[in-house]
Amino acid sequence: MKDLYLFARIAGTAVALCVDEIEAVVRLKGLSRVPGVPDHVAGLSALRSRVLTVIDASALVTGRRHAGRDCPEAERYAVMCDRSGHSYGILVDGVDDIGTVAAAAMPVCGRIGAEWAPYARGVIEREGSPHFLLSAADLLDQGPVPQMT
Question: Are 59 and 66 in contact (CB under 8 A)?
Answer without folding.
Answer: yes
